[in-house]
Design brief:
Elements lengths: L5 H7 L4 H20 L4 H33 L1
């Protein structure tokens, strides 16, 4: 049996918000690097927008999880 990379196995399992938060942080770091190096600001802005989308997805996942937990408690 071949070992799978961590991200591959993570994607085959239920998605967790931490994955999207980590990807958002990567986007924000890259955007800061591009801005700091006085490089293409359009790419930096796009990375920030993608990072914000990742954060929104993380919130959506957490909200749905919280609703599911709340329903099961009732």
């Amino acid at each position: 049996m071949t070992a799978r990379p961590k991200e591959m196995t993570q994607m085959s399992q239920p998605v967790c918000s931490e994955y999207f938060i980590a990807k958002a942080e990567q986007c924000f770091r890259l955007a800061r690097h591009l801005k700091g190096a006085l490089m293409d600001s359009a790419v930096a802005e796009e990375l920030e927008a993608i990072g914000n989308e990742f954060l929104a997805k993380a919130v959506e996942i957490d909200t749905e999880r919280d609703r599911t937990v709340s329903r099961h408690r009732q």
